[in-house]
Specification:
GO terms for molecular function: transferase activity. This protein is α/β, with parallel strands linked by helices. Helices cover 36% and strands 14% of the residues. The longest helix is centred in the middle third of the chain and has 24 residues, at 165-188. It starts with 6 loop residues before the first strand and ends with a helix.
Length: 388
């Protein structure tokens, strides 16, 4: 597999870092998850529903990893963590800036004993700037970045975004950065330090929303913007059974296909750019029309229409969607438990899923032995509280 032989030390918690390293594990990397002693290890072990004692959240962010539970405030625990970092190709941490320095596992310390290390710090606002010490999870960074202000419900008020975009974008950008650094190290022998901010990742994802912001120096009028409902053909509509459907492409030939079948060709010219108030008659027609049939009836109606139509699936329906199943984005283990699949599809050396998610600290002794610790050393560490 692509990352076979790459060693990763994962010091991160919750979602961005763990998902990044799971993506690496799926592609063959050896990932050692270092879990804290306090709080019982990785927090997402206890978040949400469980199957056979393992949370779905944990199973879908930690499969294929090994777990070592160390007290980093214990001298022996910190010493073992440094040994792990010394042999790692990649180190991922996601503490609030400054914490990793106090623990003695910062980039400068590790680079002295492992100059080729690729070290990534993931945080809400990055390692510099006036917000560097602010605590924040996904929602707060989305609010600062302006994303929540344009994520409006039907009442026109901000709503909590359904996808933790800051977490996910930072995870994927982090994966890209790590792989780029490993590629560069292959030719130079030099490692690197990566400073990834969740807020930066969000800002970088808004190029098609910056028109009014940059050109007019003003916030956008959300309901008139092309990707937020300004186009009648790019919008969400309620159906007779209080479900919803989507028209998801504003090109004029799609409008022609829909409106001709609905026998309203007179509305086609109104679907021409620009988006905004001029398209309200079409939106109003669609709102009234789509409420005359159920979602299932509209699915059947659109079957022969060349338009970017979609039903608004709930998450269970989405996981059962034939496209999702065909792409193996939901996979099942031998116990019948469902898991999220691998989104990166390589033709050669494809990723492989190891469904096993480790028990907390399950690999303490085995990993310590691989680092050269004797049985007596391991027992002494256990008694000292280094392993928790």
């Amino acid at each position: 597999m692509k990352l076979e032989g790459v060693r990763v030390l994962d010091l991160s918690l919750f979602l961005p870092g763990p998902l990044l390293t799971q993506m690496m594990a799926d592609q063959g990397a050896e990932v050692i998850k270092l879990e804290p002693v306090r709080g019982g290890g990785e927090p997402n072990r206890e978040i949400g529903p469980k199957r056979d004692g393992v949370s779905v959240y944990f199973a879908n962010t930690h499969r294929g990893k090994r777990s070592v539970q160390l007290d980093l405030k214990n001298d022996a625990g910190r010493a073992m963590a440094l040994k792990l970092a010394e042999r790692a190709d990649v180190v991922i941490e996601a503490f609030r800036p400054g914490v990793i320095n106090r623990l003695g596992l910062d980039y400068e310390t590790i680079a002295e004993i492992n100059p080729g290390v690729v070290y990534a710090s993931l945080s809400a606002f990055g390692q510099t700037g006036p917000y560097v010490k602010k605590p924040a999870h996904d929602l707060a960074t989305e609010a600062y970045a302006g994303v929540v202000s344009v994520n409006l419900g039907f009442d026109g008020k901000p709503a909590i975004p359904a996808v933790p975009a800051a977490d996910m974008l930072t995870s994927m950008m982090g994966l890209s950065a790590v792989v780029m650094s490993l590629l560069r190290r292959h030719t130079t022998g030099q490692g690197d330090y990566i400073d990834l901010a969740m807020m930066d990742s969000l800002i970088a994802s808004l190029p098609n929303s910056m028109g009014a912001v940059f050109a007019d120096k003003s916030p956008p009028m959300v309901k008139d913007e092309r990707i937020w409902g300004g186009y009648a053909m790019y919008n969400i509509y309620e159906t007779k059974d209080e479900r919803f459907i989507v028209l998801g492409a504003s090109e004029i030939h799609f409008a022609e296909a829909v409106l001709n079948k609905l026998e309203r060709p007179d509305l086609i010219p109104l679907c021409e750019p620009p988006p905004g108030p001029n398209q309200e008659p079409v939106r109003e027609f669609f709102r009234e029309t789509f409420k005359t049939r159920t979602q299932a009836e509209w699915i059947a109606w659109f079957e022969d229409v060349d338009a970017a139509f979609a039903p608004v699936n709930n998450l269970r329906e989405a996981m059962d969607d034939p496209q999702v199943r065909a792409r193996e984005m939901v996979i099942t283990d031998d116990r019948g438990h469902e898991h999220l699949g691998i989104p990166i599809k390589f033709r050669h050396e494809p990723g492989e899923v190891n469904f096993k998610a480790p028990d907390v600290g399950a690999d303490n002794s085995a990993v310590a032995q691989e680092l050269g610790y004797s049985d007596d050393d391991i027992e002494a560490m256990r008694k000292s509280g280094a392993f928790g």
